Amino acid sequence: MLTRKVTLGALLALSTLLTSASALAQDAAAAPAAEAATQAADTGADLTAMLWLMGGLSALIVFILLLMFGLLWQMRPLLWKVYEIPTIREQWYGRALGLFLGDTVGLTGEYKKDVMAGHDYDGITEYDNDLPPWWKYGFYLTIVFGVAYFIHFHVTDTGKLSDAEYQSEMAEAALMAAKLGANDDPNKLTTYQPLTAPADIDAGKTLFAQNCAACHGQSAEGKVGPNLTDEYWLHGGEVNKVYHTVKYGVQGKGMVAWKGKLSSKQMLQVSSYILSIQGSKPANAKAPQGEKEAPAKSVAKL
């Protein structure tokens, strides 16, 4: 009787949903074009209808699943008889059926009341219970993994041990360093001299405005970063030291590295522009920071 009522309820819900969807379609078809809303409103209405439809379908699916669960629950006596068949009980789907019926032997192992012989100490006895199947299968899996690991790393040598991986990575790093060249060694200074061609200075000014002004100010007067127009420098005011600071940045101080973002010439153009505005004394200049250095006077091209 309960099953029949649940089935009738499901059919009634499905009929109501289909009727509502049909009514929505008829209303949409009957609406005159002259009275249609704007495209945005139409899109919103369509989206709302779609959401309602998806919500209804989702509710129907949940209802059907609950109906199936209810039917299975009503069939528990029959399912117990099926579960008690030894050939089914030993299979994985039989164990899953047992869990549904409330039998946890498939997870915990079979409980036995047989006392192990010779295991009675001071009144403390030990039963010969099964280990949980999940524990046994996990243990078997570790054995298989251990054998495969041993063969892979120690017999066939198809895998690299940690020392071999370290040596391989160090060799790759050495090759990469060789490809980058000596000029990319952060411990070595370049031998450039500042550019003075108007085109280079203008290019440096543009690059500075795009990438550096946010921290150093539009006129390099200093904001978060230091003032770049005075004679005081935190990391050196010679062109190669400025270039080094631009290229590699200053870790922990907020100065980002522009290596890989700007070309070598662009970084030298920025460095040359910075040196070209020494002593410009912009408004609202930040207080000096670092050590005083005489301005560089050497001039050459990249």
UniProtKB/TrEMBL annotation:
Taxonomy, superkingdom: Bacteria
Pfam families referenced in this protein's UniProt entry, alphabetically: Cytochrome_CBB3 (PF13442), FixP_N (PF14715)
Alphabetical UniProt keywords: Heme, Iron, Metal-binding
GO MF annotation, one: electron transfer activity
Presence of keyword Metal-binding: yes
Protein name: C-type cytochrome
Organism (species): Hymenobacter busanensis
